[in-house]
Amino acid sequence: MGRLPARLVALFKSRDCSQDTVWWLAGVHMLSPVNPGRPSDIHSLVMVLLREDTPEFTLVDIGKILGLAHLVPEGGRLWVVNSDIDLRMFNKIYWLYQWGYDG
Fold it and tell me: Which of 5, 24, 63, 67 is the most buried (most CB within 10 A)?
């Protein structure tokens, strides 16, 4: 499975008492990089946009989350990936889309 950027909304723990099963889930909003992940000419940062082709709220297994990035609101459905907080994740989003999405 490939990597997809998403915005964390909530964390959940769900238990099925009849089968003694526990799920650790994250509620996310799926995102897409703007301008195929290339840094903006204005501020040299990667920008991401809320996806319209996915459900507004998606549940994923917490174990599937590979990393976190600091998102700065840019207005409405748009965020900037803050490279000062986490340059590694900034570069991962940049290279992932610049040189081929692996998903």
Answer: 5
